[in-house]
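Deliverable D2.4 — example input (structure tokens):
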């Protein structure tokens, strides 16, 4: 099995529950999370580790719960950042596949932010 389910079915052969993602809401959540990381880190930059390797797994196999995927590639967070940072100011349409590299960076930020000391925000007056 290559991890791709038949339309309307999950990888185990059962009927898949349909779900959708509100992209505006997802964007709002990701922006809030990045703002919170910046606040907790005390700045707008977050250092990448020198050892920035991660395992890349075929996206079809990554979501196939019936098999244990084999790792076939190694990724570098710095390389991902070098490839996507220019899209912030790029004119015109950008390749949506670059979300895969942004996702690896976001995953790292989420994991690394767990090690940051907690900074309490001042309570806003209602």
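Example output (designed residues):
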């Amino acid at each position: 099995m290559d991890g791709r389910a038949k339309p309307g079915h999950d990888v185990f052969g059962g009927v898949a529950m349909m779900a959708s993602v509100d992209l505006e809401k997802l964007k709002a959540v990701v922006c809030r999370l990045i703002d919170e990381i910046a606040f907790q880190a005390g700045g707008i930059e977050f250092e990448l580790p020198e050892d920035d390797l991660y395992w890349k797994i075929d996206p079809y196999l990554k979501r196939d719960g019936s098999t244990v995927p084999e790792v076939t590639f190694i990724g570098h967070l710095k390389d991902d950042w070098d490839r996507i940072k220019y899209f912030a100011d790029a004119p015109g349409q950008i390749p949506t596949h670059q979300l895969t590299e942004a996702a690896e960076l976001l995953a790292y930020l989420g994991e690394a932010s767990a090690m940051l000391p907690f900074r309490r925000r001042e309570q806003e007056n209602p």
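The helical segments are 23-41, 59-62, 77-84, 99-113.
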